[in-house]
Design a protein that fits this description.
Nucleotidyltransferase, domain 5; about 500 residues; alpha+beta; 16 helices; six-stranded mixed beta sheet; binds adenosine-5'-diphosphate; about 35% helix
Length: about 500
Amino acid sequence: MSASYILALDQGTTSSRALLIDRAGSVVTSASLEFRQYYPQPAWVEHDAEEIWQSQWSVAEEALKKAGVEPQQVAAIGITNQRETVVLWDRETSKPLHHAIVWQCRRTAPDCDRIRREGYDRVLREKTGLVVDAYFSATKIAWLLENVPGARNLAERGKLACGTVDSWLIWKLTRGRVHATDVSNASRTLLFNIHSLAWDDEILRYFRIPASLLPEVRPSSGVLGETDFLGSPHRIPIAGVAGDQQASLFGHRCFKPGDVKNTYGTGCFLLMNTGSQIPTSQTGLVSTVAWQRDGAVSYALEGSIFIAGAAIQWLRDELQMIRDAADTEAMALETPDAGGVYFVPAFVGLGAPYWDAYARGTIVGLTRGSNRNHLARAALESMAYQTRDVVECMIRDSNLKPELLRVDGGAARNNFLCQFQADILEIPVERAAVTESTALGAACLAGLATGFWKDEREAMAAQSQSETNRTRFEPKLSVASREELYAGWQRAVERAKGWAE
Ligand code: ADP
């Protein structure tokens, strides 16, 4: 039986998914399972790592079963995962010592304030490319070592292992034979030196994290272990690993410096490929490793927007102004413009490029004639304006001008939003028909490593074939209108800043 499929494991924040992908890049079957979110205190978020593994495992089996595919027909496994979330487990029993601390968890915010007071944020920024924030893994690992009884002692005796979710899955898939992660995941920990591509000893000392805890760092494309978990006598290689946003960048075929993708979900995640150059941001973006394959490393600039589609959810759930997120498209088109209304959805402060934790949601420009269509339109427009804020920073930091913005995510289904985005950026927007760029990216990294696809071109062909009806939105707005609208947005942001102080 020939191996005709790649199995992509997409371990997300709310669900574990598995997708079986064929040589043409088509998703043959998929399965997904939600798992429990734990909120032990306000703004704390945890996952049960055992449940992550169980759910990931069962969807993998289900995807194969649905397709009637035998394990020996799977050429390789590619893993993509929620980033920054950390798991700490016992090497002997493979049991986690604590729930996983999720990227969204704010428990270590006071530790980050202390790091900034000590001035160590500058060292971290220089070495890791990241800003100091509770979002990244380092302070979460340090928290576990300080707060889980006995953990520090066990860790110092080399009894424990720690890592991001990819390394946990690899450990389980290989029955503890391999403790490894890939460079893209490592670059989100605040412990990884993106210049030397190794864990940074000085940073490890600063956080009091023993090096023996951490996984070996491997390329994103390359065989790093094998699994017999699918019940096959022949072991399936695990051959591709990347954090979800980096996998999505790869899945969008953003292979060239200057290529940018944006995922419009709850928030927005923008990444720009900067090639072999490590970007240094002067504007509040972070530098990160995109992937490593064939010995070459690609870097990326990243900007995260906290609230994007969530503003639409707010209109639906809190204002009950719409019944369905999709209603906003028709409403926005019913009015020629937002009537001067701007909506800055800074519900949890503002992320890149403002990093203002004290900004709050603001609606300005209301008049007696403002109506729900204006507000719906302003909410959609805010996603496009925030995206322009980040893209402008990317252009300034990299000196590269993107030819195209590739988009995906739930809110990218909105045609009005995509058109307005093209207008406000003056860059065409291309929407993938397949909303599976992340899984596809992980599958491609695995398929390229094992010769399933001969080269990038063949993998690219597979991807474009599976996306025959990509939709392209061309900029249409006049320069004057565009700049006038954007200037209004910038004034609105000024009103939202620093509000909670
Ligand atoms: P996540 O992965 O962050 O949960 P998704 O990619 O599933 O997000 O996208 C869901 C988000 O997109 C929600 O915040 C929802 O309000 C928004 N959304 C979904 N469909 C539309 C639409 N047609 N127009 C505008 N926003 C939408």
